[in-house]
Design goal:
Blueprint lengths: L1 E6 L3 E5 L6 E3 L11 E6 L7 H9 L4 E8 L6 E9 L2 H11 L3 E2 L2 E2 L1 E4 L27
Antiparallel strand pairs: 1-2, 2-3, 4-6, 4-9, 5-6, 7-8
Amino acid sequence: MKLTGFVTGAGPVGVSGDVGRVAICRNRTETAMSMKKLFVGGISWATNDEMLREAFASYGSVLDAKVIYDRDTGRSRGFGFVTFEEDGDAEEAMVSMDGEEFDGRVIRVNEAKERNQQPRREYRNEFSDGFRGDREEF
């Protein structure tokens, strides 16, 4: 089965060999997903998506290369992600590129882990001096 897209709330969608048959993979780690996403850390602030793609393209078919930018400043956060079509290509790239120099910086390349979906902390509108618990007033 080849991965063809995602359905919101359902996960990845694949099409089997039969025409018109669609399978929804409930578990994103199923073998139907043959692509692998890599985390690339320590990249230069000058590195863009295309430079990242070109650096990893020699290892196989790159589906996506994305540098992550700060939403407030618009400046690179110094890391990105590269998604390969095949697991073997991603493994080779990870072993070869980890600890190598790229765009003037030594980079880290690891398998990307799914981000925990924890709710954002609620901040109180009252004054806080950083101390917790009861305190005697002066």
